[in-house]
Amino acid sequence: MSNEIQKANPTEVSYALPNGDNISLDAQTVRNFLTNGDAKVSDKEVAMYVQLCKAQQLNPFLKEAYLIKYTESQPASIVVAKDAFIKRAEAHPQYDGMKSGIIVMNAKGDVKEREGSFKLPNETVVGGWAKVFRRDMKNDIYDSVSFEEYA
Q: Measuring CA to CA, which residue among 78, 50, 59 is closest to residue 16?
């Protein structure tokens, strides 16, 4: 891939998606239609974004990947959408579903995991969790994160 990038303009790519659709991205299209935030993205940031989309076969027009830049002083963030991961998981033959939710703390300091995102007014969201089930694994895959890690 690196030879391919060096030979061509790294901010212009064309690639096929798994469903057979073709995507063409260039710097101007990314800047005009696919960038979020108020700051201008650099050519390097655009190149990283379009090359990620190509390598991972993501469709940025369906919001499978985001290029976000809020201030000139900070680098842009490239975010792959949760729905892109879920779509890929669901396409895997061993995928057998998932559950996810929030971790809340009430006024007494009691912490609870709750499926979904429902929160009472006297509760504070302190984290999130997910379980993924696979047909070929005896136990589910579980992970939890604190809210501060992502906020």
A: 59
Q: Are strands 95-105 and 124-134 parallel, antiparallel or unpaired?
A: antiparallel
Bridge-partner residues for 23, per DSSP? 15
> What pLDDT is recorded for position 6?
47
H helix intervals, the chain: 2-7, 27-29, 43-56, 82-91
Alpha carbon of 138 to those of 21, 99, 123: distances in Å?
37, 16, 34
Q: Each residue of 17-37: pLDDT tens digit?
A: 989 999 999 999 999 999 999
Q: Which amino acid is at 28?
A: Q
Query: What are the pLDDT digits (tens) for 125-139?
Result: 999 999 999 999 999
* Spatial contact of 88 and 56, defined as CB atoms under 8 Å apart: no
Q: What is the CA radius of gyration of the chain?
A: 19
Residue 105 Rama label (left phi>0; alpha psi -120 to 50; beta): beta
pTM tops 0.85, yes or no: no
